Batch of 4 targets.
Target 1
Amino acid sequence: MHKSLKIGMTASALGALVALGGLAPAQAAEDVAKLSVLHAVPGLTVDVYVNDKLTLDDFKPGDLAGPLELAPGTYKVAITASDATDASAPAIGPVDLPLEAGKNYTATANLDADGKPTATLFTNDISQLAAGEGRLTVRHVAAAPAVDVLANGAVAITALTNPNESVLTLPAGTISAAVAATGTTDPVIGPADVNVAEGTNTIVYAWGSLTDKNLALAVQTIEGLHSNPDSIPAGEAGLVATNQANDSTGLLVGGAAVLMGLVAAAVVGMRRLSAARR
Amino acid sequence: MRATAGTFTALAVALALLTGCSSAPSTASSTAYVPPTNAAPTTTPTPAASPPTAEVEVPTTSSSLDQNQVPAALPPQSIRVDSLGIDMAIESVGLAEDGAMELPQDPSLAAWYRFGPSPASAAGATVIAAHVDSLVYDIGPFAQLATATVGTEIVVTTADGQERRYAVESVQTVTKQDVPWGSIFDRSGPNRLTLVTCGGEFDYDAKTYLSNVIVSATPMA
């Protein structure tokens, strides 16, 4: 949070819901769409207009805004030079972003494969993960041909092209990630350590331009997708049980446990004896 | 200027809403008349009457790898409850193959669920568990947890060497099928400590305890 941007908001939204200026605020958390915005066009500070209202002022390359909680609907987004006075002469767009309730999106301002500025809407996978797992989403929004993604030196994703994504479910942990031209292993980005955190969708963007030698990684994380362990079995001997074994099988097992307890007590006693003798 | 006024308005309404909830019981139990704080919202303009477009700040961050990753949690390394004679090292664990929380076989070793919060986390419950007993190792220190009382002090030392003190808030023995695992492993809410072991009656056929002993503790000021 090294800086923040301004967004128009009606007073009724009260911070619980952020409604874009002039639009009806959404009513309940499960009824909203979440939208993050990533600026992935190198060297160009921009303004972002939503439905012709200035929403993100002086938005800088590599910055990530949001998530905003919005009423579902279609939003018209235009991206202008930062000195524009309105949305009438956009550098990108306008594009229509259809946002559905309960979904989570990231809109990127990015270069297409040929280096032309464009906008891309991604839907983020926020489905629940099994306990111990993390989700890694890799998105190609760079002016570059198809790439492979290497995880810990091995090819994990092949032939990913702009503006597409690949989603992996992995055991949680840090991986060393690198991006190389498809069919090669010589990194054009990285290697860099990426924490594929448990219960989290870690979204990595390859952005920038191969020709301009400013390819880079951006990262966005969506937490709270975890599951929990379903039990803690923390005892096996019955040595502190509040009940007694009361059937024949139980007597045998319980007897064994009691016997073990006696043996343990005897061992401790002997140790104490020998200690006392010293 | 507009931003400042809008922020204050939003804050005032938010505060009024908060105090409106929390102050109601105290007002009822007070002997002297105290003007209800939840009267405040009537003085603020309602959105319907005046829908100004205020300016608020939207969180924006750098998306660079070194600034925007989920930080690794700071592991707890040892736990001490002097009044119960507990002084144990803590291992960082994940899951057993059957979906249970993994635990060291030795009941003299405690285990921290490393995918959940740590004592250094901003929010959520740090879960530390240990076997109560073992056919190989005998009874473990956590057998004493059942005798903890409200206010019992627990000291957890994290990997940075810092001692973090907690006071027991509750000790419960809950049959295993009734344990709310979602709230045991809760990653939200206030920072707190949850200790878990087994206890209660034992099923001598299945060689398993029927209950978990759950100690909830909150940070001491």
Note: The helical segments of chain A are 248-277.
Target 2
Amino acid sequence: MSADRAVLAAMVREEWRLHSRLFGGRRFAAFPVFVALVGGLTAWALGTTGARTETVVAGAHVLVALFGLQTGTVGLVGRDAMRGLLGETTLVVFSAHTLPLRQRRLLGLFLLKDVGYYAVLLLLPLAVAFAPLLPLAELALLWLTLVWTFGLGLCATVAAVSLATRGRPGKVVAALVACALGAAAVAGLPVAAATPYALFVAPGITSAVAAAVPPLCLLAVAALAYDPEHEPPARTAENAYRAWRRRVPAWDDPVFVKTMLDVSRSAGGYWKVLLSAGILVAVSAFLVSLAESVVGLRVLPGVAFGSILGLTAFTTYNWLTQFDDPTTYATLPIDTSAVFDAKRRAFAVLGLPTGVACYAAAALWRGAAILDALAGLALCVGLQAYLFGLTVALAGTRPNEFLFDTVLFAGFTLGVALPLVPVLVVGFVAAPLSAPLAAALVVAGLALAGVGHVLYGRAVPRWRERYRE
Amino acid sequence: MPTAAGGGVVAPSSRRSLAVAATRGYLPAAGDAGDVNAIATADLRKSYGDLTALAGLTLDVPAGELFGLLGPNGAGKSTTIRILTGQLRPDAGTASVLGVDPAADPIGVRERVGILPEQESPPSFMTPREYFDFVGSVRDLDAATVNERVETWADRLAYGAKLDTMHTDLSRGQQQKVMITAAFLHDPDLVFIDEPLANLDPIVQEAVKRFLREYRDAGNTVFLSTHDIDVAADLCDRVEIVHEGELVATRRPAALDGDRLLDVFLREVGADASVGADAGAGR
């Protein structure tokens, strides 16, 4: 046990130093304050506009569950991935290779550290942000259920990944369980009763026990199924590089082709781009229904979905920059600007169509009128182009660095909110959409694309210099 | 240029190497009208915050030399290579690589030289064959040339069976072979190689050493950075020892008379010479 405590303490210390070295101690330490402020303002605004508190709390639980699912992907660390993915930055995890520590136990401690870390850095300020809506006593309960929810998401991913280490039978079991849960929810069975949210709504022994069962079951599955020695066979592939270059001969862009190959061959292929966008569709559907409950009117689905789905630019750009950056090409005669241009092309080929496809599906689903649909399309494309430029300007090819860098995150939040909030307000209150207003929104979309282009053009020379310092 | 990267056909005479190099128009070496420099630096300085990586590095590397920059970890070797290949801008000082200023024209330098970095630059999810196509298209090589050279290198380093395996699934040694091939794929006049034998088995190490000597004999220049004294002593025509960003000694391993390179190294970098004597390694 003392070894476990020592490892856990070392992990926490290492995590702190990693982030504080990356962003500076104060900027990192200020992150919870920033979350509490932004969250508090949002909660106050929602409360003022008449949103039902239980709806907002439910939304927070949904978002935290999704975040837990995403964080749980650390369970993807098989033997090699542990070396490649975490080994370079996480010496303690890497130590599994050289110290008498069981990998399974080490992974468990790593997840425990993540729960503790996010519980304090993100979920505590998020719970505090509900102060305008909830009495003090309920804030503590909210924090508890949010942490619980985060753990539930984390356990779900880790259990799925653990099953996947058992090959096809494990994957089939994971898929069957997911389908069964989905079917139960669609059939109207009280699936939510066995979640931490139910504990928040009706605190008591029964709801606490019901909320405890799913994560404990998932943990048991993960512990039994996880195979730390699992290593997939070496993968081979036919030469696709030349074929890809022939598809876009006019661009003659090797880095673009490499980017597309990397995305297609990494775990999840192109589907992961669509999946990330799909999560945003779910979030925007929730926000639209929330807005409808607040204003009591049917919102403009085209404008609302088009605006929110512009945010897919950020998730797509994240995937496109996951596997390289300008330093990757430092040994070749490739200028930094050529790397950014390649990312922009890949974004145009993969990101824009994905965002537009999700938007089209949402607009069709919610039955957007023609003017509304056209305005939403212009906003979706314009906001994507703008966010692409904004992300390049602030984070270069490392959009992940937004996480926990308070200054960058605040800049990005402001940069997103400035165009997004006004058009969302229009979407929420301007139904039915008039032709002049629709035209104005189309112009706004085009203008945003122009701003994104300018931001991108100014950022690239700056990054070129920075990479050589 | 003489073929070495592709076919391995070379001329044995280093005298001829200098003659070949002289036709390429590199900078004449100071004080020796008969020599030409592939690399020349003057008072190069570079700091990272409070840490001084280079404190006024001045060196000349004649064309056709297999030059070694030897130093302990953190001595400034990798920073030197990164400046000479245009990856970093020096704080002060000048450099010339094949007649090109790497600070002013980094892409121009990298077009002409080959670089094998210490930390492999991973081609991620591409296979080696695709990565070589990628490098070939960046360097304007036609497909037939790339194919021919890749086959030669795959035979030389014994990894032909891995050409269609994804890079992420290759061992570190195989990845090193891929990066060596990529550094020589365009048959450059000059290569910068940082710890070239890392992760390679002894048979492949010998193949690489043999190739490097042939490559040098063909009139090309090798700038080898290493902290492995045996490698430097075995391979290099001349070795400069760098310590805390400054050159502290120069030796020609072939001309060391009784003195071992290890002894010189330990003396110059301030380590306890008796440790080196006990270790009994080096020359």
Note: Residues 382 and 447 of chain A are 7 Å apart (CA to CA).
Target 3
Amino acid sequence: MSEQQLFKVTIDNITVEVAPGTTVLEAARMIGGDVTPPAMCFYSKLKGSGGKCRTCLVEVSKGSEKDPRPMPKLMASCRTAVMDGMEVKNITSDRVKDARAGVVEFLLINHPLDCPICDQAGECHLQDLGYEHGKEGTRYEFNRRTFEKHDLGPYIQLHMTRCILCYRCVYVADQLTENRGHGILDRGDHAQIATYIEKALTSDFIGNVIDVCPVGALTDKTFRFKNRVWFTKPVDAHRDCDKCCGEVQLWMRGEEVLRVTARKDQWGEVKESSKGGTGWICNECRFEKKKTADWVVEGPSMVNRHSVISQGHYLGMQQPHETIAKVMGRAPRLLMDIHEVSEVNDPSVDLSAIEGPATGATFKKEKSKS
Amino acid sequence: MQTLTNRSKPVNRKPMTWLEKLYVWNIAKGMAVTFIHIFKRKATISYPEQKRSFSKVFRGLHILNRDEEGRERCTACGLCAVACPAEAITMEAAERQKGEEHLYREEKYAAKYEINMLRCIFCGLCEEACPKDAIYLSQTFAPANYGRAGFIYGKENLLIPNPKEDPEGFNKARGERVMS
């Protein structure tokens, strides 16, 4: 490999040298920043993914050193291998920007506007994509497609209306689990993620479809409606697990572990573990270890400060010294303890202990007790 | 020093004459202003008996809105809480069960919704953030209270009357601010 020469590729006037066989998208990710095309279906850790959503379209203005003709159509950068001397335009090309806005519009044609309900809101790639590359309104005048409710068992919640058919979850089931229980049924407008005859997805590692899903189509049922992601506090934690690397991110509220996910890198993909292996986590770690005692907490996760999740999370925060107790010799008497009055955030209600989403009874029952 | 505006007047430092030293003229001038105001319209009202009408853009106590069918609009999306600069809003979400479709508009709803009126600064950002037209600042203000506990407003204080059962109360509570 060492004698193999590197290919020079220029993306938005920035030149990098990459190994032959690298795709344009991966080369752009090496540069990073705004130059990187967004990707909804491509997932570098899943073999065969990509080429479906068309959000990563780029303009190839010069094919290669030997054949400098530009490519006539916009190319999907996740599936186009680099050539020596290739010149690619992403954000510097108006054609790309226009096409991308069109692709986003197509993706959103059938996507419901239920972000206020959706658990993925705040970490949704389609939300980011629509915000950055989309148009404000929709021109679609017809009803969005609807599906019959399909139950995928106690762990995974499927919202087929939100799906953009990226196939990532299918590849996860193929490549990480011993048998794939779900797939895409039907075709065209009727294509849907389903198990054909309704059954629960229970194979180990199937929980990773939640991390991989770019939208809120597959979400964690044990976290369903418990809190918004930006009110939870992400911390890195690990435990000894014989099935997976055991390195996870806990999404906590106070001392409660509301959700467990794999750690993500800057592209929203599951990070490699610090021991060198893959970062996928098993179902046991994800769904059953919902106590702080199960985990060794390493510290708060780094969150991109442009993300809504970073709101209210401060690193290196110093609490001011309370001087009243020192001067008076006793703690100051509080005029009101908020927990005596407030019914929200009741210490006696442990949301992490309930299996599914909370219902009206969860809060009513506790109220009559107190 | 040269002035910037050329409008400054030099101070008159002449000693006062005998007539001026009596101050009668100036006192009469001052009293005239006072007496004129006796015949002018009063600027104040006797408050609890009389009340002033609110401006259309007045931002007072919050209301939680319902739709035409009387279902709660709030879905506990948390955008008001994240927009709130005073961190006054908290909520607890729950899933709508079968048979509750007439109560809540969407799959998810706010089982508990609380606004701490002690913290609230009535900026109206919650209203602006709300994607569901669920929260509005009405044309009333929080009544005075001796205790702090009375200022924690729960859903029972905030929700407006059901338009099907009490259309009059519904319209009154919505006031003129609600646009939809």
Note: Chain A touches chain B through 31 residues (CB under 8 Å).
Target 4
Amino acid sequence: MLAYIVRRLLFLPVVLFGITALLFALISTLGPWTRVATFIPSPDAERHVDLEAIIRKYHLDDPPLKMYLRWVKNLFRGNLGWSQSSHMTVSEAIARRFPATLELTLFAVGPVIIGGIFLGVIAAVRHNKPLDHITRILAIILWSMPDFVLGLAVLMVGFGVLGWFPPGRLSAWAQLAVLKESFVAYTGMHTIDALLNRRFDLFWDALRHLVAPVFTLACLWWAFMLRVTRSSMLEVLNQDYVQTARAKGLTERMVIQKHVLRNALIPVTTVASNMLLGLLGGVVIVETVFNYPGLGLLTATAATRLDVPCVVGVALFYAVILVVVNLVVDVLYSLIDPRVRLE
Amino acid sequence: MAIMAILRRLVKNRVSLLGLILLAFFAVVALAAPWLAPPEAGHDPYRIPRRGWALEPTPPSAEYPLGLTQGQYDIYYGLVWGTRTAFRVGIIVITCRALIGIVLGAIAAYYGGLWDEVLMRFTDIFMSFPYLIGVVVFVAIFGPGLNNVMIPLIALGWMPYARMMRGNILAVKQEEYVLAARALGVSDFKIITRHILPNAVFPVLIQASMQIGSIVVSVSALSFLGLGAPEGYADWGQMLNFARNWMLGEQGNALKYWYTVVYPGLAMVLFVLAWNLIGDAFRDIMDPRLQA
Amino acid sequence: MKGKVWLWLVLVAVVVIGAAGIFIWTGQKGEPAAEEAQGPSFNPDLFVYLGPGDAETLDPSKAYDTASAEIIFQYYDNLIAYKEGSLDEFVPMLATEVPSVENGLLAADGMTYTFPIRKGVKFHNGAELTPEDVEYSFERNILADPAGGPMWMLIEPLFGVSTIEDLACQIAGVDSFDQVDEAALVETGKRVMAAIEVDGDNVVFHLNQPYPPFLSILAHNSSWSAILNKEWMIANGAWDGRAETWVQWHNLPTEEQVLFDKAMGTGPYKQVEWDRSNSRHTMEAHADYWRGPAAIKTVIVNNGVTEFNTRKLMLQRGEVDAIYVPVENSPQLEGMEGVTVLRNLPLLSNVCAIFNQEINAVDNEFVGSGQLDGNGIPPDFFSDINIRKAFCYAFDYEAFISEVVLGEASVPYGVIPKGLSDYFDPNGPRYHYDPEKAAEYFKKAFDGEVWEKGFKVTLVWNIPNTTRKTACEILEHGIEALNPKFQVEVQGMEWATMLPRRREGRLPMVFIGWLADFADPHNFVYPYLHSKGDFMAFTGELGRNFAAAEFDELVNAGINETDPAKRVAIYTALQKKSIELAPHLMLYDACDRRAHRDWVKGFVFDPIRPAQYDFYALSKSLD
């Protein structure tokens, strides 16, 4: 297994090279006059600007290979470049946005996975009964809602009507409290920092702001988890050993708990890991609606403004996360399911 | 299993029958669009006509039965022609994805060795490519518009099918009956048509067809970012996006503009629902163990 | 194996949670300060504003966007300020008097301005303001002159050129800044330092030519004329104040300037933080402010809330005090309880569609066949005045203004917007939607050929500006209704895709807006009408020659004239001519709007102020 892990990690540079080279190749088709648009925020802001000077200064007219080599050289010096769209270095931008994304992920993973599995089990156990149909149709309705429709609806009810779950990451008073020198930001994740500083009022405030985005994400993902769990459960329920267990006279509840669930959940881990990756990559629409600036918004802004260093930097970061998470999932998978062997 | 038999089973199951009816309804609407909502002469029929310039939506009336959304775009017209868009985008994207996946997966599994390794790592690289960045960069290169959005959706979506195809073929190759058939000297053609096609390709196609509905949802998310269809193009996602500023209504009258979100939303939900119901039923039918 | 894994996971989780718990309970307890724990209820000491997009930089020498100017406005003071409600009268600020010929501080030739500097003014770090700070501020900003920045506004009146590099080239007698030798660079530095001098307690500006709008360029609202703290600047690594070294700090990348993300001024608020990853500025009242400390102690400007619905709900719930409202969203605030919405505030801004008189027709997808054969337009299509006038008559201004910008605009009188109506005849001619006249002019164009054969043209708007898209469509509608052979197509384009096409002169019409830098008609007639202006750059060689022949002389006369009455006459003539010759299709004069809670008191609208709110003037109270 160690050999497997090493082999997979050795493959990481290949993935990184592949992705960044692909991105540079794509972007190089754009030409310097398109790329210079990053430096002018809007068509009406081009006043007294010498665009040629900007192109010369930032070497936007270099051949793509030269640009790529320069980028790689800087990468080895730990310099990912300057992000024009977020007004800071790319590494700083990622370092500041990632805690927000991570915090959201940490809080969303539990409800999404457990809720989804729970719903899937119910649907499978009541296969082709009304409850099965209702949960499935409900799930599909939620799933076929574009994220922004659902997000805005949740915002409207949770904040507009009830006033319980405001958008943003912290209330204004809490933002000021966090800025105080006595408050140490250990992780950039407000809930955890608040606990470490023993500020439960802040913890509560940060938590309140997480509810609505987590709920929205959960609704969007439940449908998916439900489907996978349900079909995987159905498959296992019809396996011979389950029939045998039933024949032995075990109650249906026992059968499901003892024999079905664990086996049925194996394929679910793949879906769960995909979902985890989706969350870690940033969820731009939920972030926009709930004003929760994470990696998704960073990526979207950078990409729409053609902020090349930032786009490439984020892609690189994401690829690393992806490879690592996939590796961890594979290893866990082999631990849970002895039939799977890592080769 | 013969196609007719599958169809018969689909019709017999009430849930999948509902899906079939819904799908048939959408198909009829798409085919009959020129008669249901005649386009203005000399204009691109996919361009939704504007009945004025005002931003504020107009409620349904006798003349415009589903109302006018932001910018006075005719909701009824947009929904009818948007059905064609939904089918077109969904089917093109999914067909291309499945085709690429099947071909690459088959090559990897059939030739094995170095081919397998290279193709699967290639797949890995595409899997690690951030979707959002891919879409935005593609759109920046090819320009906005529905056709150009389809390119990245295809380019960044074929990988699961390739993996699935590869896995299926490897599994089929190991099955005893295939080994036996080979040993008996059954021709390759027969092995492919009798075993590989039904056991490796069909599952991929079924899996893919279930996704047709969800493509419409993916595209609509892109219109939120301003990357989807050009403004005014008949596309459900965009119609919903028009409703974005109005769906919260006014203070004290939250439902004032309900028609801007309910009608396009309904079209989208039913479309996705139809494909999913059929897909689920299909899968149940194809899985012999579930027929007990 | 299976069981063991779960056991281990549970064990690890227990240990982690336990350790964290012990750490938390035994660690330093963070005391919530009494004033913090107030929650979201009404707080008269805190003002939260949600803006539309974040600042690009806080450096006054580089900032040239409203979001940046808005923040700089709160941190810095200027020498003078606009008098409330006026666009051409001033009050003293860091200067104790406004120069005028009457008080002797403005020389009779209009070329020397003297500002007595106020004493006892404190910077945010406690240092006292000196005349040297004022001198340094201007010299530093002028010498830094980053590409795309606003410094041309000061360089032009002081040196008669538009960039500091041009000045250096002029002194060295070469064509390119790369060729300027060391000696000429030092000489350039000296020239700049000589133009702005300290004289006792005064600071004196020596202009290159009389420049009537000079005071507007200095007034508070002009971020480029903000007064900096010399000592603090040098200590933080900015220009050291010597003529020999300025090039090291010249045209640096935005982020390498000391002031990129920091601020040290004498203004009513001092910077606490610019959280760039959340696009949020936090500022605190300056306790030693020379006009007395601000009523509102803390201000948060959050420019990261891009979704309007989110901003709207936060205002509705009273979580924030004011939000930015785009014109298309203003009806959604109607009837909201506890919220004041002010609409139709006239801005010094207008929007136009520029006629490209010499289109680059090589491989051009926007001009059809590129010929007058019914399937395209010839490159010089818009150089025919009849075509331009026909387009101007074919646009339904009233429908656009009432339905698209919801009444928040007015039909233009020419290139000078309504807000500067002192400079032109408000009863002068205007265009209005008139299909008959449009048809009449189309029939005259190209000796009737256009009417007979028809044409085809594509209008391009920049995504996501759908207001402009609708303007294109209204124009399309107006033109196509005249003659079935007229075909207008409308196409949206991302800014990055549009930029190279616009630059190469491929767009038949360029839709664009102008927001005043300073309150003077020169700031409109120059970009719109002068052959070297920003907008004439989009009209091709033919367009620029046309401008040089028709407008240049009058535009130059306007800026060189010091007699106010004569200037009014010149601008009245220019305004009228801009209607008669129709160099551009002027779409509308823009208005602005504000939305804040009723408890916000003291708001006064100022058309030239870049900031939506002057937080110093505001207070919050529930009655």
Note: Strands of chain A lie at 82-83, 88-89.
